[in-house]
Design goal:
7 strands; alpha/beta; seven-stranded mixed beta sheet
Amino acid sequence: MKNPKWILASSSPRRIELLRTVGLDPTVIKPEVDETEIPGEAPARMVSRLSREKALAVAGTQPRRGTCIVIAADTTVVAPDGKTILGKPLNAKDARRMLTWLAGKEHTVLTSYTLWIGRTRGEPKLLTRVVRTRVKMRRLSAKRIAAFVQSGEPMDKAGAYAAQGFGMGFIESIRGSYTNVVGLPISQLLQDLEHEGLWK
C-alpha cells in the first residue's frame, strides 16, 4: 500500500503520544461531536457510539483519494457499581466524591476505538471495538484525596485521575491493557490494523 494518510480524530496529547511511540505520526483533527450522555445508555454503548460519531465526523471532511485511515476513540470510567459513568468532575467537590468512591475498590475503564478505512474506490470500512480494563485503586485518606484535588490534576480527567499522571500512584493493580486506561488500547488497535493489511 502506497503512503496511506493517517488521521487521529482526537486532540488528546496522550493518544497522540501513544501512536507516535509505535511509529505513527497522524494528522490530528479534533472532531465536532456532541458528547452529551443519553439517559439510560449503557457505558459500552455510549463509548462505541461516540467513537463512531467522531470517526465519521472527521472522515466526512476528507477527499476520496488514495487510502485514508481515521482513528477515533472515546474513553470513560465506570464506577465500582458497574453502571455509573464517571466523566470529568464538575468541580472540586465532585472530584472528591469520585475519588472517595473509587478508593479501595475495583472499577472499569472502557475505551472504544473506531477505524474508518477509506479508499479511492468502493465503500469505506468501519470497524468499532470496545476494550475493558479493570483497575484497583488503593485506599486513600480524605487528606490525600483533598491534596490531590487541590493540585488541579483531576479536573479534566474522567474519573478524576489519570494513569499516566500523579494518579498512577493510586493504582494498586490493573487487569488488562494499560494503554487502554491511558486512552487507546494500542495492542488491540495494531492487531486490527494488521488484519486489514495496514500494519506490518
